[in-house]
Predict the 3D structure of the following.
Amino acid sequence: MPAEGKLPLRSRWKAVVPAPLRHGILIFLIVIVVEYLVVPELVGASRNIHYLERLNIGWLAAGVGFEAASLFAYALLTWTVLPHHRPSISRLFRIDLSTTAVAHTMPGGTAASAGLGYRLLTSNGVTGADAGFTMATQGIGSAVVLNVMLWLALVISIPIAGFHTIYIVVALLGMIALAFFAILIYLLTRGEEPATRLVRRIGRVLPRMDPDHLEATFRHLGDALRTLATNSDRLRSALGWAAGNWLLDAAALWSFLAALGRYVNPIELFAAYGIANVLAAIPITPGGLGFVEASLPLLLASFGVTKNVALLGVLGWRIVNFWLPIPVGAGAYLSLKLHRGEGLRASRRALADLAVRLPPPEPPAAT
């Protein structure tokens, strides 16, 4: 039996706190967020429905189009970073839609969505090592690109709109994140032998983890990352699609505000958008639900947008940014799992199988 001090923190937490209590704590936190962040915003929006009388349908349609293009850009990012076998872009688009739906329905859904993406990629001919590399690279690379773009937006916006206190917090978080990513990339591409020894030690401590398998995975990630770095065209494409994903999503938000008659400075809008997405990374609610709705209207108001317009624009954007991908992603998942002609019963079985597979496996209890 491993010594208690050698158990990972997560394992000790799960060994001490029973599952029903953990789930209750999580549900309580979600209720708190919804009660104090989401509901007041919805009540405030209901008092401003009269703004919808002058809604510009053209800009509204453009916002929906930008959001669809943003999701497709992420699928192109997936296609670009896949090292070897690549399923069709249509199939990759549906895989990414499926993982997005999962990320929007589970607190801390990134891990569950990555697990689903791994299973769907491997079931479509991608090797396990390549699927793991792709899921890790697209997630980390996308976060790095957002942080760099946010830093640029903050620097440019200071002389335009003045300095905001929250910039200090965001700048510090960005520095920590970028430093972590820089160290990770260095270990994967330059300091492989010391890092490999560290990985093996971690593999001996983690439950149900084979050190040899973990080392092989780490070496494969390093090889794939070096290959990507040496292919300048492919690397530029990956960075371009990652940036396009964020810029198109921000353009969708801009369009929803324009539909209400407010044309926001794009630099200021992206600064507010980037800060809200940093807050959305807090793994309490799915996709930052509540945090984005509460913070983004206030950030936009600090740049001169009328708070009522900011609130309605953000809520409208979140319908297509957060809520709409859930049923669309469920449909995409069914299209991947079902054969032509299968009916409602097969659809129910596929969705039930997805629900069963989503929760992460519990580590074995210490005995």
About this structure: Residues 1-10, 359-367 have pLDDT under 50 and may be disordered. The CA atoms of residues 196 and 218 lie 7 Å apart. The radius of gyration is 22 Å. The first helix runs from residue 9 to 16.
